[in-house]
Specification:
Blueprint lengths: L1 H17 L5 H13 L2 H14 L5 H13 L3 H14 L13 H11 L5
Helix pairs in contact: 1-3, 2-3, 3-5, 4-5, 4-6, 5-6
């Protein structure tokens, strides 16, 4: 068990170091892990997903919004909230606004029990 945890943590560190932002293969694999794994793996996968995905990635935004509403694990929900924050970031270029920022804000507000 301890060796499995150490291997997972090492794998996460390596993935974060080498995976290019927006890598769709990694994103799809991570979404699957968040949906279908034990809680500790869900927490790690949601953390990595928030780092690997690019702002505005619709598939990831929808996944994080769902996790925030349905997960009973605080670590997974925390990572989803942080990930939604990144997904909703605005570009430094005003001519390229993140059109999904509003969706991210709504999902975060819903998690707090408020509506816009």
């Amino acid at each position: 068990e301890d060796q499995d945890i150490e291997v997972r943590n090492s794998t996460v560190r390596t993935l974060l170091a080498i995976c290019p932002e927006g890598n769709q293969a990694a994103i799809s694999a991570l979404i699957t892990k968040v949906k279908n794994s034990p809680r500790d793996v869900q927490a790690l996968a949601s953390e990595v997903l928030g780092v690997v995905a690019k702002p505005g990635d619709v598939k990831v935004i929808k996944g994080f919004a769902l996790i925030l509403q349905t997960s009973d694990d605080a670590r997974v929900r925390r990572n989803a909230a942080i990930g939604l924050g990144k997904m909703g970031l605005q570009s430094n270029d005003p001519s390229k606004p993140n059109k999904y920022a509003e969706v991210c804000v709504e999902a975060l507000c819903a998690a707090l029990g408020c509506t816009l």
